[in-house]
Amino acid sequence: MSTTAQEQPVSHEHHHGAPSGLKRWIFTTNHKDIGSLYLLFSLLMFLTGGAMAMVIRAELFQPGMQLVDPHFFNQMTTVHGLIMVFGAVMPAFTGLANWMIPMMIGAPDMALPRMNNWSFWILPFAFAILLASLFMEGGGPAFGWTFYAPLSTTYSNDNTALFVFAVHIMGVSSIMGAINVIVTIVNMRAPGMTWMKLPLFVWTWLITAFLLIAVMPVLAGAVTMVLTDKYFGTSFFDAAGGGDPVMFQHIFWFFGHPEVYIMILPAFGIISTIVPTFSRKKLFGYASMVYATSSIALLSFVVWAHHMFTTGMPLAGELFFMYATMLISVPTGVKVFNWVATMWRGAISFEIPMMFAIAFIVLFTLGGFSGLMLAITPADFQYHDTYFVVAHFHYVLVTGAVFSIMAAAYYWLPKWTGNMYSETLAQWHFWLSLVSVNVLFFPMHFVGLAGMPRRIPDYALQFADFNAIISIGGFAFGLSQLLFVAVVFKCIAGGKPADSKVWDGAEGLEWQVASPAPYHTFSTPPKVD
Amino acid sequence: MHTALLQKLVLTVLGMFAFAFALVPLYDVFCDITGLNGKVDLVVAQKSEGVDASREVEVSFTTHAKSTTPFKVKALQYSVSVQPGKLSEVKFLAQNTSDSARIMQAIPSVSPGQAAKYLHKLACFCFDQQPMAANASLEFTLRFYVDTELPKDVQELTLSYTLYDITESVTAGNIEQTPQVLTQPFISVMSPIVRGPQNG
Amino acid sequence: MNLANLKLFNIFVPLLASFSAVASDYNMRQGVTDVSNEVYQLHMTIFLICCVIGAIVFSVMFWALIHHRKSKGAEPAQFHESTKVEIVWTAIPFLILVVMAIPATKTLIAMEDTSKSDLTIKVTGSQWKWHYEYMGHDVDFFSVLSTPKDQIDNLQAKDEHYLLEVDKPLVIPTDRKVRFLLTSDDVIHSWWVPDFAVKKDANPGFINEAWTRVNEQGIYRGQCAELCGKDHGFMPVVVDARSPEDFDIWLAEAKQAKAKALQAEAASVGVTLSKDELMATGEKVYMAYCAACHQPTGLGLPGVFPAMKGSAVVNGELKAHIDILVNGRPGTAMQAFGKQLTLTEIAGVITYKRNSWGNDTQEVVQPGQIQAFIDGTKEKE
């Protein structure tokens, strides 16, 4: 962004500054501009989805109905989920991919720059449609982000078409983004950048992109079936016409489980970049990291039904999905062990990106543990659809995916803006987030085990104390994120100028270009040895 | 330089979109094999070849209709004890409680699910759409046998019918009108696409 | 985070020591069936395994964070791979998983027991209540949340069992294998009683089954676990487990009560009630059965549930109004109340709707008129 403000010394022949004004952003095909757009958009969506979480937590602060009616509460849980998944986490990773992948592999830009522009610019429309439906008669989607039929078909309101359309656009956007990433990585690596020299962030994103093009079309298929069932008289999910509502869940989770890994694999890449930098030591087990990531991705296609043990599955099915799910913890464990081994006998320092990375390792592992518990089918019958599950996936997605995005933002902000972020603000942001996120999500394990179902607007009295604590944690975590907004905008506006190699232990091509990164980088490919 | 790869990727995307729809028939095959949801083939069974006189299995019947569905169907016996392989008959009394002619479709489901593929029906009102005149009462006969291969640990099973009023869907053309006896699994595989929901 | 782990340990260790069936506010219930006990043991085992692994891994990590700091002058080592180590830490978790999978598989097989049961109960979910039918015994009833609306709206102090209480609980015998057949009228619901470790989805169009054998008498409470629309949080499950003898007595009484209710229905046909009586009954019924969707204000939820105030049906021809109440409206969330409510209740609620929120038809509907409507549709045969 601030690349406009500072003209870079011309080191290559093509270099010129960015065009100015609104048109620059609308018509841009520059990977850095588009990366910034993605990141800012995801920040906006993170705050929007967060505001909805605040509504949810405010209603759940005490037993009894206080602020909203149950129908609106359901809209909030649904849209909160959709926005955080499709609006906050996924675009943030795409933004990071746009900014960093070309620079990391020594390419001048993404392979398909015009498509890149499109894949971003359709997103705001998707979310505008989704959010607008909240204000229409009947309200927005209220059937959970998983939109199980027939609640989303026969028993939903007429605005469901808007939901379907919005999801289609989000899907198209991520598919285009994924195609772009694959083509860029496969075709545009600098000479000498062999597969096993790729930075791990690039590797994990490549695998993620393949997951995206494999499963986003399946999601598109699922919403299309919901659309035709509701409006055009088919009955994919209606027993009366020979369909089956349980089939919806199979199709949805065939998409949904790989989707979970879509939101965590790039995070693994980020942590694998940051930990070696601040340990001043090479990543331990690079090759095994690549294999572990690939096997996680492959296994993610054969575990979907662990989300639906209670739907009534044959014993053999339950056993298969239990074993397969437990198996995933092996490569995931390998990753954690590798990070710890990287830190072992390093020369560790605790800059903010590293703090977030350490918090990620501990808290994500915690989410992994509850995931392992959930894999045990007989116990899952008790955990399923309770706050234990809510705790599990928020540990994985908030202290996992979101913390990794924060870590990445702090890590690369100086490279993007040319300025160091405010250390004081960043420290406050980190520590407040760390404490409040645990006050928010940790007690959810307890209420879940004690029997509180998820997605309820009101609860029995024995859950009251913990819910009050959870809500306080929620408000604190929500407010803490405003500090992050302050850090980002302050850093864009100015600050201590950053060197081209911001972190002394950092490795990779992105640190060979100036800070802020010039508008065009690597117009002539660098030599990699 | 990028075209070849781009083409492959776009084809993959289209292929996966098609795959989502291919999951529909695949799912039915999967159900047939595993008995998921107690789904039963809408197929006329062949007669059994042997009888296992060493054990008896209790087969019970239940029907289910939404409060708004104008049909009542009740088995004259709540349950029967049968030897695997032996042919049995159960009569059902069906009523259309509304003032207009209606078409009924019964959807069978067997519990426990793993028993579904061992319950063979030779005659069942669920094979066809059942047109019923206003306020009419009809008697249906279910002829079935339990396979001798039924796992020994399944000692009782329930055959449930969910009743649907598909009159509107048939008139709207979402469902094929000609009642047909389905003789091949292929047709049941296609069913979610050719048929329609009960509320058009 | 280590702190949180420690805290967890401190909470669980005393519990582990005393393997008593404490109804815990922060851990899974041990429950009152053999299966639920096994599930609880599995839960505690896997939990402890996770704690141990976590303690080891994080100890190593924090050791490194403390001792291998740059500020302490640590020099980075050069190693960055070791196939041996990689194999070891792939193999060990794998073996732990195998050890864990064995008891889990055993429990799962026990849960899928399909031997003969002593009693079969059909459980039907609908928006937002449960219906129980004792198969082969001709007893069936709806079970609806009994927490008063005023408690939910914070106008009244909340009872001990706030939101976990129903008008008629499911009664089952202890020490008998009770089999549940689950299905649904509309969307997917999930029937859950934590103390039995039974949670099974009720899928429309299909049946599912679950079973339990309860060891202790008592009242056990659970909830619908699958999001099923607006009042998903307001459809509890309450099970009253009694000794087999008491259960038999209860079942016999229930059959008699059903016969009596039929007589009372027949008697109510001839009765003429005053408008005030009907309005009072009607208001009660409306709040219990109708207000969830159509709202206490009669305004409905625009675009979702129609308003009663100024409604064409409510202010129009009486017969159409009775029809929609008795037979419901297919394809919408409007259920048929003909079999859920008594004639007097239907008459009352219709009277109430036609004379409230500014609806001013002045009509008073008697139970006999409802019966006449039902007979009328049958007579045409």
TrEMBL record, chain A:
Involved pathway(s): Energy metabolism; oxidative phosphorylation
UniProt keyword Cell cycle present: no
Enzyme Commission no: 7.1.1.9
SUPFAM superfamilies (UniProt xref): Cytochrome c oxidase subunit I-like
All copies of domain Cytochrome oxidase subunit I profile, residue ranges: 25-529
Enzyme class, first EC level, given as a word: translocase
Bilayer-crossing regions: 37-58, 78-99, 120-143, 163-188, 200-227, 247-271, 283-307, 319-340, 352-376, 388-413, 425-446, 466-489
Main location: membrane
Keywords: Cell membrane, Copper, Electron transport, Heme, Iron, Membrane, Metal-binding, Respiratory chain, Translocase, Transmembrane, Transmembrane helix, Transport
InterPro entries tied to this protein: Cyt_c_oxase-like_su1_dom, Cyt_c_oxase-like_su1_sf, Cyt_C_Oxase_1, Cyt_c_Oxase_su1_BS, Cyt_c_oxase_su1_dom, Cyt_c_oxidase_su1_bac
Subcellular location: Cell membrane; Membrane
Membrane topology of the entry: Multi-pass membrane protein
Gene Ontology terms for molecular function: cytochrome-c oxidase activity; heme binding; metal ion binding
Keyword Membrane: yes
A single GO cellular-component term on record: respiratory chain complex IV
Reactions the enzyme catalyzes: 4 Fe(II)-[cytochrome c] + O2 + 8 H(+)(in) = 4 Fe(III)-[cytochrome c] + 2 H2O + 4 H(+)(out)
Family per record: Belongs to the heme-copper respiratory oxidase family.
Name of the protein in question: Cytochrome c oxidase subunit 1
Automatic annotation (TrEMBL), chain C:
Names of the cofactor(s): Cu cation
Leader sequence segment: 1-23
Gene Ontology terms, MF aspect: copper ion binding; cytochrome-c oxidase activity; heme binding; oxidoreductase activity
Cited PROSITE patterns: COX2 (PS00078), COX2_CUA (PS50857), COX2_TM (PS50999), CYTC (PS51007)
Keywords: Copper, Electron transport, Heme, Iron, Membrane, Metal-binding, Respiratory chain, Signal, Translocase, Transmembrane, Transmembrane helix, Transport
Compartments, as annotated in UniProt: Cell membrane; Membrane
Limits of the Cytochrome oxidase subunit II copper A binding domain: 116-253
Domain Cytochrome c: 277-357
Ranges where the Cytochrome oxidase subunit II transmembrane region profile domain occurs: 20-115
InterPro entries registered for this protein in UniProt: CcO_II, CcO_II-like_C, Copper_CuA, Cupredoxin, Cyt_c-like_dom, Cyt_c-like_dom_sf, Cyt_c_oxidase_su2, Cyt_c_oxidase_su2_TM_dom
GO cellular component terms listed in the entry, alphabetical order: plasma membrane
E.C. designation(s): 7.1.1.9
Membrane-spanning intervals of the chain: 39-66, 87-105
Topology of the protein relative to the lipid bilayer: Multi-pass membrane protein
UniProt-listed Gene3D superfamilies: 1.10.287.90, Cupredoxins - blue copper proteins, Cytochrome c-like domain
Cofactor, free-text remark: Binds a copper A center.
Reactions accelerated catalytically: 4 Fe(II)-[cytochrome c] + O2 + 8 H(+)(in) = 4 Fe(III)-[cytochrome c] + 2 H2O + 4 H(+)(out)
GO BP field: ATP synthesis coupled electron transport
Family designation: Belongs to the cytochrome c oxidase subunit 2 family.
Physiological role: Subunits I and II form the functional core of the enzyme complex. Electrons originating in cytochrome c are transferred via heme a and Cu(A) to the binuclear center formed by heme a3 and Cu(B).
Name used for this protein in its record: Cytochrome c oxidase subunit 2
Organism: Pseudoalteromonas luteoviolacea
Phylogenetic classification of the source organism: Bacteria, Pseudomonadati, Pseudomonadota, Gammaproteobacteria, Alteromonadales
